[in-house]
Amino acid sequence: MFSYIKSDYGYTKLRKNFGRQTLFQKVPAHIVDSIIPNKDEQKQYMLRNPVHRLVQSTMAQSENETNTEPVVVHEQGINHTEGGWPREVHIYNEDHVNRHRRRVMHDDNYVHTVLNLAPVMNHYLDQNNAIELYQAYFCDMESQKPVEKYDVKIANVFRDPSSRPISCIQWTNEKKPKLVVAYSDPRTTHENNSCFFWDLNRQTIPAHEITPEEACWQLACSTLNPEQVIAGLQNGIVNLFDIREGKKPISQTSIYNSHRGPITALLYTHSRTQTEFFTGSLDGQCLWWDVRNLNQPIDCLIMSIKLRPNENPNIGNAEGISSMEFNSSLSTRFLCGTESGLVLNVNRMGRTHSETLPSYWEAHSGPVRTVQRSNCTSRMFLTCGDYSVRVWSEEVHTAPIIVTRPYRYEVTDATWAPLRFSSYMVVCKNGKFYYWDFLRKYKEPLTALKLSQNELTKITPYSDGESVAVGDSFGALYLLHLSENMTTPDFNDKHLMMQTYERETRREHILDNRLKEINLRARMEQEAIINSPGDDQNEDDLQKLTDEYFKIIKQDLRDAESFSRSLSIT
Q1: Between vectors from CA 354 to CA 348 and to CA 358, what angle results, nearest 5°?
Q2: Domain extent listing, the chain
């Protein structure tokens, strides 16, 4: 908000230009002018005596009394005790109760009593079974409008003067957070490579500006110092900025020990000093760094997953990294999305390469644009790519447990809601923002909002869940505010979402086992057909026919040679 500034301006004038001084003095009263009344209008005047007027000098008030019906409330308790037992049986002693039950069951009348009660019990069982539990009753009822209203509002818009596409959005870690935005276009080159710090209350001019040497693809804000920012550039170099020192980087990596391609992922990792981070690039390498020393990486990992026998991992057979995810609860494990549509499960503490990359999921047909673990459980994660958003389980590697309907336009980014365990947000190339909730609407989004006529590229929510930042391909950054029912979780949301996760995981396990049984049965039937004795007989018959065919051919050749010889002799 702009503060009001009082402006003053003084005018100057010479004394000689003021004119003669004004002097005042006391004089008796005298008539300057007298207006004579109009005789015609004076004749029309009528004197009214008396005159009645109503005057009310106080505010009007009213008093109403109501008498409600009395409600009589009293407390009443119920004491339920188990009766029908003989006096010698103590109902709280299990031995006495079991002994008395065995004595009754050995009685001759016990069997007849049970047989007499059986028809009545069967009648009620048949009556209960007559109700179809899986039938959809009340289908003809008209659907009512939901009581809850989901509202998404555009609070502010921050525009880039150069209209560059937004490649990364981050929030600073401070009480009054700022938005750190990187702009780059992989298809074209811009002379302006600046990244902006935007104040949420000022949209005209950025609060701070940093200028890397190359186009910036990824950003990461420090958890200790809000003024420090790490930038991953298009040429594979990492720059460290401090806005207190100026626009230029205070430290950077060397091009000889950095990535060979653009940096597509940049995240802080778990460490004691909170100064370590790791980067991923299209060259297929994952490098670990320390902010205090950027001369060389701490560790390196090549993302080679589909290796042939006796083949060593190298950059030539590595998978290009498109996105990564790290959760502080799993300090040695992280997920990595690749350009070929795979999601790799990485364990940094593995001794061999196969232990470091133990498993993977075939997630999408194109690049995996986002991979993110759920706040509900770390075993469930979200991916987006091509035209779909999918939810996966670490226990199932064959198929996703939840798949939404495909979008008409390509999905560019997706993220879980920070506080609601069952909600996530999606942006697409048609300029629309979608908000989903599995517990309220499973097959369609709760709400959708058209933000821009251009493609939406990135979405990053704030930790409180109320504010969401969305960027498009024309340099516009939209700050959205969500309604309270879209940000605050309900009491049973986590429990219900865990039940949904376990149910869908169990369903996928059952389908996977059933598919394995079908494939095994088909393989056994095929082997039985191949090993059947009828096939041997058919092969023998085929061999006999082949021998007879070649015998006839040889005989025809002999006849042709003898005929040619007889012609030559004659």
Answers
A1: 70
A2: 154-302
